[in-house]
Every structure is written in structure tokens, then in C-alpha cells.
């Protein structure tokens, strides 16, 4: 990785750690995939080179991907081309980890943090998702987008909108999130 990629990798780690702290979940392990013209490099969370063999990754990483059974986030360094988009992806994947964790707690009758209707919706979607189908128009995705929008505004003073027709659904999801404890968590995090 070059110096700029190292700086942006550290921003990704910081962003994911901030989000998981606010969401009160364990931060997953983070790996970076750097595709060059001749090889695919894998770097650990401490930015040390691990491998140049794609088989060591075992998954196709387009942008950002969470592997629940390994509790690992893989980040492709090509998302570094646009820093706002990079931050957005980091916040979205953190929220996705949270959604999976909340559904797991709900199904195991453990205390959960979000609203029951929201968790039931996510649970239904996770149970009925089919790989290879575009899920951008789903409650899971709208919630992830809303979370990213809130975090970008609160911590980076960046206002974003999404270019597809989902803005109304994202705004509804923002209202749902604002009714949760997240706003209180953000305020106490900022006071630290």
C-alpha cells in the first residue's frame, strides 16, 4: 500500500471503531484488499502485508464486505478513490454488523437495543434474501443509508443525499433511528 492508502485505511478503521462504539457492538476484525495490475494483496488491521494470494481471502470483495461467521470486515482499497463514499461505506457496513447482531439477540431471546418492529423486518429480510439479487430497495439498506447519512452529518459536517429514488425511505429510516438511543449515544460520545 502507498502512503495515501495507509492514511485512508486508518480513517476506515477509526470510522468503523467510532460507529461500533456508538452502536455498542464489538468491532469486527478489519482486513484490506489492495488490487494491483499483477496481484491481489491482503493487509491486516495493523496494515501489515499478509498475502498476495487471492485464495487467502476466499471471497470476492467489490467494495466492503462483512463475513458474519468470521466476524471480519474486508475493505477493498478502490473505495479510497472518493473519501466521502469511503466513509459512507464504512458507516453502512458497521450498521449492517449491528443489524445482524440485533437479529441474533432477538432470535435468542437476549436483550436487544433497537425497536422490535425494525428487528423483525431485518430478520425477515435476512431469512429471505437471495444472493445475486440487488437489495438496495430494502429496509436493511435504507437503514444502513440512513445511519451513514446521520454519521456523516454529525461527525464530518457532510450532508449527503442518495441519487436513486430512495431518499424518502432513507428519511423515514432516519426518523426511526432518531427515535432510538443513537442520538443520546452520539451526544455522550462527542462530550468525551
Structure write-up:
It is globular and about 45 Å long. α1 (3-23) packs parallel to α2 (83-107) and α2 packs across α3 (116-128). Strands 3-2-1-5-4 form a 5-stranded mixed sheet, with helices on one face. The model has no long low-confidence stretch (mean pLDDT 88). The longest helix has 25 residues, at 83-107. The two termini are 33 Å apart. β1 and β2 form a beta hairpin. The chain has 6 helices and 5 strands. It has 192 residues and is an alpha+beta fold. The protein has 2 domains: 3-81, no CATH class; 83-191, no CATH class. The protein has helices at 3-23, 83-107, 116-128, 139-156, 167-178, 182-191; strands at 29-35, 40-43, 49-51, 64-67, 72-76.
Layout of secondary structure:
Elements: H1 3-23, E1 29-35, E2 40-43, E3 49-51, E4 64-67, E5 72-76, H2 83-107, H3 116-128, H4 139-156, H5 167-178, H6 182-191
Parallel strand pairs: 1-5
Antiparallel strand pairs: 1-2, 2-3, 4-5
